[in-house]
Structure formats: structure tokens, C-alpha cells
Amino acid sequence: MHNELNKKVGIADSVIKKVLFAVKSHNMIKKGDKIVAALSGGADSVTLLHCLNSIKEELGFELSACHVNHNLRGEDSDKDQAFAQALCENMNIPLKVFSINVAKAMEKHTSVEETARALRYKAFSEESERLGAKVATAHNSCDNTETVFLNLLRGTGLKGLCGIPPVRDYLIRPLILCTREEIEAYCDENSLRYVTDKTNFSTEYTRNKIRLELLPKLLDINPSLYEGVSRMTSALSEDSVFLENMAKEALYGARLEDKTYSSARLASLPPPILTRTVSLMLRERDIEPTAVKIKGFEEIIKAGTGKVNVEKNKFAVVRKGKAEIQIIIQNYRKKN
């Protein structure tokens, strides 16, 4: 169906139509919004910027861009920044550049990818707050499929199978229905130059192995793989939102006057709801709800008592019928 559509209207028009459909279906952009396009300089982000610039008058929003220089690839990183600056200057689009030092920011047990992503989204958040804007990232349907399989290989729950959400907080993904093939064809049809990150072709990273080795084999079996995964993630996302809303109601119902929670009420919840309420409790205290932290908290809730360290100086505590996250400063004496 998508291939037939592309032949009838041309790749460029097809991509624009998919972008408009995604924007309207998920209520991504309203008249008067400020939109910041995350511009790396790759084909995806160049297409995103060009598409948004093409529809900004029709939808009535302001457009700017931001570029994050990770300083990981020496001259190549600087060339990407220069490319982004030149492109925005030619298109008369304001650009904000963030220069970050990923190597310096890396902590023990975190990878380059994880650190770069965290700092990149920190920059996006800062720009969103500075301008009162939404940030558009260039994630597409291929990225969505890669994410689903990456989560699946790690062992995931329902949320991991939902893939990349089209809208999350201040973030929007207008290209989420477009394939990488369509995006590159869009650049060709519009004579758009873009830069290529050589690390995208290295199978050192798990995501690249999925993209370069696994997905081509699956596409041989099912050429409509990306469309199929998109339908699945859309359907599962509705189920996930329903369960999340149930968890919020359950957590509200378990809340006590002193702002702790009834451990008995929590323990009586069905497992899928309890897991989500515990996740919400952790997020309330700015704690990333990993599977290990959630499981540990759940166990003491079911036991009716206990204490689990969930983060530095932060403990999940169940005592006297109450469940909460407590701040307990740990003073460790140095050994002589």
C-alpha cells in the first residue's frame, strides 16, 4: 500500500503526507506552537527540518533548530556542526548549538551511547524550557522497529514493546511513520545534502547489529515489517496507557494523609498494576524505575516490611503499614 502511494504521488509528497498525518493523528503541533527541530545533520534530521519548514505556514507554528556536538569524533564532529550551521543559515532558520563533553561526563557502568543520549536530551530539555517550545526529533519507523527488537533482546515488558512514542512530554516525532528508505529518497528528490556518521556502520553497537544484520533477514521474510511493527506498537501503546491510568488511580487511592502510601492497599493490587504504581512512586522521587529497583520495592510491599536501597541516599521503606521513599544520608568512614 505504501509503495503504491509513493509511486502515485512521488516520494517527497508521500513523506509530507505521512508527516501531516502523524502530526494531526497525535496532536503534535497546534497553531502558535514553537517547534525546535533536533538537527544532527544526517538524512533523517535534514528531512525533518525541511518537512517542518515546508508545513510551518500551513500549520501556523514557529520553527528553529538545535544541534548537539558530542565532541566524540574529532574533526568529523566539528564538520557536522559546521554543516548544520550552514544549512540553517541557508534556510533562514535560527539555530542553537550545544557543545558537550561525553567522555568527561561518563560515569562508571555507563556506556558512551547512554551518556551521549542523556546529555543530548538534557540539551533538548533546556532548549524547550528556554523557548517554551516542543522539540521534534527525527525518529522514524525503522528506528521504532530497531528499538522494539533491542528491548525484546534485553527482556522487556509491555512498555518496551510499545517502541518509540510519537509524543512524550515536550518531544514529538513527526517522521515516525516514514521509513529510512523514504527519507533518503526524499533527500535525493529535493537535492538535500546530508552528513553520514561512520559509526552507524559499525557492528560494535547492538543497535547497529540489529539494523545491519537482523532486520534485512526479517525484511526478506516480510517486506512490510516496518508497517507491521508500527501497527503493533500503536495497539500496544493504547493498552499501556490504559494500565498506566489504572495505576495512577490506584496510587491515588492508596495515598495517606502524611503523603505516604498504604502498603496493604498496594499489596492487594494485581501484579501489572502494582508494578506500575511502584514505578510511579520511584519517579515521584526522581529515581529511574529499573526492573531491579521495582522488584525490590515490590518484594518488601508484599512482605509488609523492609528497606531497600534504590539510589544513593534513597531507600524504599515499608514499615507500620506505610510505604514510602526516604532520604537517608549515609556516612561512610574511610578505612585506615
Brief rundown of the structure:
The protein is an alpha/beta fold and 336 residues long. The chain has helices at residues 2-9, 11-25, 43-59, 75-91, 102-105, 112-131, 141-154, 158-161, 180-189, 206-221, 225-254, 263-267, 271-284, 291-303, and strands at residues 34-38, 62-69, 95-99, 134-136, 167-168, 171-172, 261-262, 306-311, 314-319, 322-327. Helix 3 (43-59) crosses helix 9 and helix 13 (271-284) crosses helix 14 (291-303).
Helix content: 55-70%
Tell me what the CATH architecture of the largest domain is. Answer: 3-Layer(aba) Sandwich
Number of strands: 10
Strand content: 5-15%
Number of helices: 14
What would CATH call the homologous superfamily of the largest domain? HUPs
The end-to-end distance, rounded to whole angstroms, is 72 Å
Structural class: alpha/beta
CATH fold node name of the largest domain: Rossmann fold
Q: Over all CA atoms, what is the radius of gyration?
A: 23 Å
Instruction: Report strand order across the widest sheet.
Output: 3-2-1-4-6-5
What top-tier CATH class of the largest domain fits best? Alpha Beta
Largest sheet: 6 strands, mixed
- How would you state the average pLDDT, rounded? 91
Silhouette: globular
The arrangement of helices and strands along the chain is HHEHEHEHHEHHEEHHHEHHHEEE
Q: pLDDT below 50 for ≥5 consecutive residues: which ranges?
A: 1-8
